[in-house]
Amino acid sequence: MSRSAFIVGVVALSILVACVVAEAGTSRDSWLDTDFTTNMWSIISSGNVEELKNLLESNQELANVRSGDGRGPLWWAYEYQHPEMVQVLLAAGANPAERDADGKRASEVNGVGPTEFMKNRQDTYDSYDEESPAKNYHGEELEDFE
């Protein structure tokens, strides 16, 4: 195979993956807990803005991936109160009008904890303290931000 044919193949594959990822963000059937969504959650929960920017530079459609509870990068950025990440994700095309499995928009989960969907999954969620709304579901104290 020639070098140019290889490059054309890689570009075509990249476009196909971008289309699939773009569609995946909006279809409930594609809301899955995967290694990629776990990695994205880790990047956002840790507040690593540079790593998020680098990832989105390779493919802005990744701003719209969704995990099993319908949440994705924008929800997590709000949950962990990372306003700079919220702005980076919005600039990359994250859709603030989308809703999670509980019908909440990302901006409505500012440190409020897990979805009802996740609270009902004891295999992935151990405890939720209704009396402490100032903590996320990992027990970390949060401050309000807009």
From TrEMBL:
Organism phylogeny: Eukaryota, Discoba, Euglenozoa, Kinetoplastea, Metakinetoplastina
Protein's name according to its UniProt entry: Membrane-associated protein, putative
Signal peptide: 1-22
Cross-referenced InterPro entries: Ankyrin_rpt, Ankyrin_rpt-contain_sf
SUPFAM superfamilies assigned: Ankyrin repeat
Ranges: ANK repeats: 69-101
Keyword Signal in record: yes
Extent of Basic and acidic residues compositional bias: 97-107
Keywords, ordered alphabetically: ANK repeat, Signal
